[in-house]
Amino acid sequence: MAFRVLLIQAPASRNENGAGDLGGHDADRILVPSGLLSIASHLRAHGFGAQAINLSTFTWPQAIAAIRNRPADLFGLSCFTFHRHAAAALAAEIKALFPTSHVTVGGPHVSALPLDWLGHYPAFDTVVIGEGEATALDLAVCLSEGRTAAGIPGTAFRADGSPALGPPRDTIADLDSLGKPWQHFDYFSPITSRGCPGNCTYCCTPKLWGRKIRFRSADSVLEEIEHLVARRGHRLLKIKDDTFTAHRTRALAICQGILDRGLELRWTCDTRVDFVTPELLAAMRRAGCIKVSYGIESGSPKILRSIRKRTDLPQVLAATAAARDLGMDVRFYLMVGNRGETPGTVRQTLDLVERARPTAFYFCALTVYPGTEEFEIARDKRLLSVERFFTDMARSEFSFNMGESSPGMSHLLNQLVGKLGGGDRPYAPYTTVEREQILARHPDMLRSYTDLALDYCGEGRLDDAEGTLHRAAAAAGRETQGFLHHLACVHFAKKDMAAAGRFFERALAAAPEDRYLRRDVAALNAAGTMNAQQQAHMAAWLFSNLRSTDPLVSGQPIVPMPLDP
User: Fold this and answer.
1) Is the pTM of this model over 0.90?
2) Residue 342: left if φ>0, alpha if ψ -120 to 50, beta else—which one?
3) How far, in Å, CA of 439 to CA of 2, rounded?
4) CA distance 332 to 353
5) Contact 525, 14 (CB under 8 A)
6) How would DSSP label each residue in 178-190?
7) I need a surface site. Which of 27, 56, 353, 508 has the fewest CB within 10 A?
């Protein structure tokens, strides 16, 4: 029998409600186990029939049922801090079901605490530390040949019953040499580099990827994007690099390649304000970028120095203004409770948001992760210990106020995080007048036309919306699938069903794999005869879909299981 490998993204917790209930976590990261997909594709490229399943939105009973019917020789789990208890409990279930199997685990949490992890959880045989592809391949080869896994570089293992470390493993220099997950799996969040040029005190990226940032080539990234768009029908991709624009020349080459290949998509990315320029943002916008997320953290220069952010407020204002000038959505990642925080520094952060006017922000308290400098500081202050990550079952993560200790400060932070935390908060969306001004400044930016048309639709100005879309087609020199889709929705809202049907047919002919388009057509076909109120609701739903930044995988708003096509 062939050696069987099953890689698993565990549920968020044993009490998780499932069905997409993410408990305020970033859905971009939870729903797509990018590391597991890369490892699985690398194993497949070397002859192992690795499977990957995503249980992140499953209830606990559903997760156990999914595992029970999937025996394997090697089980690999991914572990973040927030679901560490669920990952450990799932491993115990796996060992009970398949006692002769080898169970390993990787990810940022266990990479920081490999020996402690093995010491607390006997169900695990090894820990994969840091980058997983080469280590997982060595592990699969050893086990498939009946050899011991003890001492494999890049692992923690058991030696005579006690946890021990293997030799360190070098990071992978050539990321293009890895397997190609897009050939095997359906997902929407490419990762095109590893590492970050920053050295922030709260971040565990150096522990996971090393301190040197490494990049996939522009050709490799474009191959992935083209496959996900043209073959798998994605129109929205979320690039989840720590700093997508860290290599300016490569970022420009990717943007130009998207245009040269005629790829029609919307995409988002995360980056830093000190690694963008107006020219780079303009190239990104032309290539379909609709949103940039900046790690801002604080509006206080003192706090920025304390956390070693190495950015300043003029850079924040300039980077935000440059993106808003182009009509791009801008999300700020912000956190409070940092060392040196006072009510005054919190007000500086709120003042910065008011001055910069991002379209949304994500507010959270300082969360301390193992493997970070902030964890070492918290441990020295006796605020947190390694042991608490194993014994505190009630807390998924550990957030602290490392700043001023006073009743007023505590009240302010509780009020602020309670009111503004827990997910993206819209802040300064574009007005229709702003959209008109953006289009007047940048008539070559085709996304500006569709943005304005959708604003007109929201105001009931359907003739203006249709006229704007025809102007877009004239500016592009062709009628793209996206414009046809928009025109179909406008004509549906105008109750011109014959024209709507024709535009939907032409759009489908131009992009038969587009899952968003197919979803809309299927919904309309299923709706049948509608009264005026139902039609108005359907039109609003169609326009909302055109704006949506929720990805679709296999036609659903959450990633199903398994991930194989």
Assistant:
1) yes
2) beta
3) 59
4) 8
5) no
6) S--GGGT---S--
7) 508
Cα end-to-end distance, the chain, whole Å: 24
User: Do residues 227 and 362 both lie within one domain?
Assistant: yes
Tokens of 10: 């565990």
DSSP 229: I
The answer to whether residues 202 and 59 touch, using CB atoms and an 8 Å cutoff, is no
Residue 213 lies in a domain: yes
When divided into structural domains, the chain yields a total of 3
Query: Average pLDDT per run of 10 along the chain, which is 565 residues long?
Result: 92 63 43 86 95 88 92 96 94 97 96 97 97 97 96 95 95 96 92 94 86 94 97 93 97 98 95 98 97 98 97 98 98 95 96 97 93 95 94 86 90 83 88 98 94 96 97 91 95 93 94 91 82 90 87 46 45
Q: Give CB contacts under 8 A, 24+ apart, made by 502-506.
A: 506/479
Cα 49 to Cα 100, 103, 476, 491: the distances in Å are 19, 17, 45, 48
- How far is 132 from 36, CA to CA, in rounded Å? 8
d(CA 77, CA 127): 10
Q: Of the candidates 228, 221, 151, which has an alpha carbon nearest to the alpha carbon of residue 193?
A: 221
Same domain, yes or no: 30 and 61: yes
Residue 522 located in a structural domain: yes
Is 537 part of a structural domain of the chain? Answer: yes
Supply φ then ψ for residue 488, to 5 degrees.
-60, -45
237 and 147 assigned to the same domain: no
Tell me the H-state helices in 405-461. 407-420, 432-441, 446-458
**Whether residues 448 and 406 fall in one domain:** no
- What does the block give as tokens for 212? 């040197």
What is d(CA 35, CA 187) in angstroms, rounded to the nearest whole number? 12
List pLDDT tens digits, range 369-399: 999 999 999 999 999 999 999 998 878 889 8
Cα–Cα distance, 554 to 193 (Å, whole number): 26
Q: How far apart are CA 41 and CA 34, in angstroms?
A: 11
Provide the residue range defining the domain that includes 480.
439-545
Same domain membership, residue 342 and residue 249? yes
Nearest to 187 by CA among 326, 36, 376: 36
Q: What distance lies between CA 499 and its chain's CA centroid?
A: 37
Residue 121 lies in a domain: yes
Can you say how many angstroms the Cα of residue 340 is from the centroid of all Cα atoms in its chain? 30
Partners of residue 334 on adjacent β-strands: 297, 363
The closest alpha carbon to 316, from 252, 363, 271, belongs to 271
Closest by alpha carbon to 6, among 32, 34, 46, 44?
44
d(CA 5, CA 141): 11
The sheet carrying 289-297 orders its strands as 236-239, 266-271, 289-297, 329-336, 360-365, 424-426
* CATH code (residue 471): 1.25.40.10
